[in-house]
Amino acid sequence: MGLTGFLTVSAALFTLGMVIFISRKNAIAILMGVELLLNAAALNFVAFARFTPSQASQLDGQIFAVFIVLLAAAEAVVALAIALSVYKEFHQVRADKLVSLKG
Amino acid sequence: MSYIQSVIPFVPILPLFGALVLGLLGKRIYTKFGENVTGVLGCSMPFISAIIAATSFIAINRLDVTERIIRINLMNWVTVADLQLQWTFRYDPLSAVMLLIVTIIGTLIHIYAMGYMKGDKSFWRFFSYLNLFLAAMLMLVLGDNLIIMFLGWEGVGLCSYLLIGFWFTEEQNAIAGKKAFIVNRIGDLGFLTGILLVALFSMKLFGSTNLSFAEFHGNIDVLAEQTFWGLPLLEVIAVCFFIGAMGKSAQIPLYVWLPDAMAGPTPVSALIHAATMVTAGVYMMGRVFFLYTWAPHALGFISIIAALTCFVSATIGMAQFDIKKVLAYSTVSQLGYMFLAMSVGAFSAGIFHLLTHAAFKAALFMGSGSIIVALHHKQDMREMGGLLKKMPVTGYSMIAATLAIMGFPLTSGFFSKDEILWKAFIQGSPMLWLVGFVAAGITSFYMWRLVFMTFFGETRMDKHTWDHCQEQPKRTVVPIAILAVAALTIGFWNVPHFLGGHSNFTNFLDPVVHDLSSSPMENYRKLQLIKEKDQQESTAQTMKTESGHQAAASGHEAVVDHTALEWGLMIASVAWTFFTGFLAYIFYLRNPKAREQIMASALAQRVFMVLNNKYFVDEFYEAVVLTPIRKLFDFLGAFDQMVVDGLVNFAGFMGRITSSFIGIFDNEIVDGLVNGAGWGAQAGGKGASSLQSGKIQTIIGSSLIIFIIIVGCVVLFLR
Q1: Cβ atoms of residues B400 and B485 within 8 Å
Q2: A100 to chain B, closest Cα gap in Å
C-alpha cells in the first residue's frame, strides 16, 4: 500500500467533512464535520511522515498529528460550550437561523 | 545733576500723568468722590509744574549767563542711519519764560475752571483735556529739537479741537472744532515741510542730523548758501515755518478759526486761545530767530501779514456785540503785534508782548467768562450794562486789564506795545509803525467800548437776570484778580533805557534770542559781508559760532541818540489811545445819541455791516475755496457713479456669466462624477453586504469556492 491510498482516504474524509460542514444545519453536526476535516489533515501528516525519504525528522508528522488531536479536543470543548451558550440564548442550535452577525 | 536738570522733565510729565489718570479713571473718581476731588486732582498737577517752573526760574537766574542753556537728555528716540533723534528737553531763558506763562496761567485757569464748569456732567473730561493740553504745550516749549516741538505743536492742535468742541452735542460747536482743526492742519503742513527741508539738507550736507536747535543754529551759515528750486533755502524754510505759525497764531489768512473757537468753554478761550497755544507761533519764531536773521525777504512778507492782521482784526473787533468775539478779534490783533515785532527783528519785544498779553488777555477772558456765567450764558453786550455794582472784583480786574491792553502809562501793555511800535518805526518802516499806531487806537476804542457797554450805564438786562446776577465764587474771581495785578505790574521787567530802565527782559533772553540792531535787510547784508571776510581770512577757522556773528553785527553799530524820537512816539501813541478811549466814553456812555446820529448815515451803516460781518471773509472762503471744492467733489462723485461704478458693475456682470457657466459644468459633470462614485460605492457595498448574511455556512461555502478558484488559477496558470 502506497502513499496514494492514504491520500485517497484522507481526501475522501476531507470531502465528507466539508460536505457535512456546509450542508448540515445542526451546529453539533457541523462540529462533527470539523472533526472529520481535522482527522483528514492528521492522516495526511502521518502518511507523509511515513513516506518521507529523510530519516532526520521522521517523527515530525506524528507530532503534528498528536497536536491536532489535542487541538481537536480543545476545539470540541470550546465549541460545545459555545453551542450550549447559544442554546441557552436562542433555544436552538440551527446554524441557518443564527443570523445575528448579519452585516 | 543740577536741580534744574532733575526737575524739568517732570514739568510736562506731571500734567500728562494727570490727563491719563483723569481720562481713564475720571468718571469713577467723579461719581465716587464728587466734583471737588476731581477738580483738585486736575489742578494739582499743573500746580506742581508751576512750582517747578518758578523754582527753576529762580535757579536759572542764579546761574552765570553763559551757563543758562541747559539740555536734559532723557533717551534716544529714533536712530536710523543719518537721523539721530533724541528725547531732549532744553531749558534756557526763553523756555523759562514760556514755562512760567504756561504753568502759572494754566494753574490759575484750572482753578477758575473749577468754578466755571460747576455742574457740568463731563467735568472730569474737561480737566483731563486741559491737563493734556498743558502737557503738549510744555513739550512744545521744552523740546530741544524740531520734531519734539512739532509733537507738542500737534498735541496742542488736537487739544484745541477737543476743547472747542467740548460741548459737542450742539452741532455749531462741533463744526467750530473741526474748522479749527482743519485750518491748523493747513498751517502744520507748512511747518512740517519746513522741518523736512531742514532734515533733508542737513542730512545731505552734514551726513547726519539730530534736528536740534543748537545744531541748526551752528549750521545756519552753511545752509544759507543752499538754494531750493532756485530760491534761497533759508527763505523757503522761513516762509514754511511762518505758514505753520500763521495757522497756530491765527494770522491772515488762517485766522478764521480763532473767533469761531469761542464756542468752547471760556476757560479754554482764556487758556488756549489767548494765553498759550496761539502764542506757539511767536515762540517758535523766537526759537529759530537765527533762521530769520538770514531770511530778510521772509521777514518782509511777515511784516505785511502781521500789520494787516493787526489792523483788520482790530477793526472787526470794533463792530462785534458778542463779548467773547470782541476779545477773540483783539487776540488776533495782538498776535499781529507780536509778529510785527518779530518781523522787524525785535524778537525779545515780541516775546515780551507775548508775556504781557498772556496776562491781560487771560484776565479779560476769565472776566468775560465770569460775566457769562453770572448772566446764565448770555454773551451779547447789548443785553448787559451796569454790572460794576453787581460784580466789583470782576469789573475792576477787567478795567485793570483794559488799561494794560490799551497801553496806559506804566502798565504792562504800555511797555511792550511801545517797544514794538518803536522797533517797527526804527527797524521797519514808518508805514508799519503807522498801521500799528492806528491799530493801538482802535484797540483802546473797542476795549473801552466793551467795558462801558458791560459795566457802566443803565442795565439793559431784563429784571429777572439782573436780580439773579451776582459776583462769582472766590475760586473764579481770585485768579482773575491775580492776573489783573500781573497785567498791571509785569511791564516793569522790561523798562527801556530811555525811561531809565535796563531792558532786563531783553538781557535775560540774550543768551538765546538776540535782537537785530538794524533793519533785517541791513543786518543780512552785514552778515554776508562778515561771512565773506571770514572766508577770505582763513579756512582754518571754520568753527565760527553764530553768536560771534551776532556780536559782530551788533557791536559795530554807530550809536545814534534816538531818545527824543522815542519820547515823541510814546507820547503820541499814549495821547492817541487816550483819545480813542475817550471817544468810546462819549459814544457808549456819555452821549449815545451822537453815536446814533453817526450810525444813521448810509456810509456808516455800510462800513458797520462790513465790519460786523468780518469783511465777509468766511463768505469769501465759502465762495472761493469751499464751493469749487464741493463742485469738484460733486464731479468726482458723478465720475465715481458713472465710470468707476460702471466698470465695477460690468466686471460683476462678466463674473456672473462666467460663474453661471461654471455652475452648469459643476452641476452636471463634477457632481455627476461625485454622484457616480457615490452610487458605485453604494452598489458595491450592497453587493458585498449580501455576503455578510450572518449564515456561517454560506460564508464557509463561498470562501471554499473562492479558495478553489484561487488554487485552480494557481495550478492552471502559474505553473
Answers
A1: yes
A2: 6
Same domain, B542 and B668: no
The position carrying cell 556780536 is B551
Residues of B with CB under 8 A from a CB of A: 689, 691-697, 700-701, 704
Q: Which of A22, A30, A99 sits opposite B701 (nearest CB)?
A: A22
Domain that holds residue B342: 308-513+566-591
Whether residue B650 sits in one domain with residue B581: no
| Total residues belonging to chain B | 719
Question: CB–CB of A95 and B691 under 8 A?
Answer: no
Cα nearest neighbour of B693 on chain A: A102
Inspect the interface and report whether the beta carbons of A21 and B700 lie closer than 8 Å: yes
Put simply, the answer to whether A102 touches B704 (Cβ < 8 Å) is no
My answer on whether omega of the bond before B511 falls inside 30° of 0, hence cis, is no
Radius of gyration over every alpha carbon of chain B, rounded to an integer in angstroms: 36
Residue B344 CA to residue B359 CA, distance in Å, equals: 24
Q: What is the CATH number of domain A3-90?
A: 1.10.287.3510
* pTM summary value: 0.73
Instruction: Kindly provide the residue ranges of all beta strands, DSSP E only, lying in B223-323, ordered along the sequence.
Output: 227-228, 231-232
Under an 8 A CB cutoff, do B694 and A98 touch? yes
The gap between the terminal CA atoms of chain B, to the nearest Å, is 105
Number of A to B CB contacts under 8 A, please give it: 32
Tens-binned pLDDT, residue by residue, of chain A (103 aa): 688 999 999 999 999 999 998 888 888 898 999 999 999 999 999 888 888 776 666 778 888 899 999 999 999 999 999 999 989 988 888 887 877 776 5
ipTM comes to 0.76
Phi and psi at B515, nearest 5°, equal: -75, 150
Question: CA-CA distance, B514 to B293, in Å (whole number)?
Answer: 10
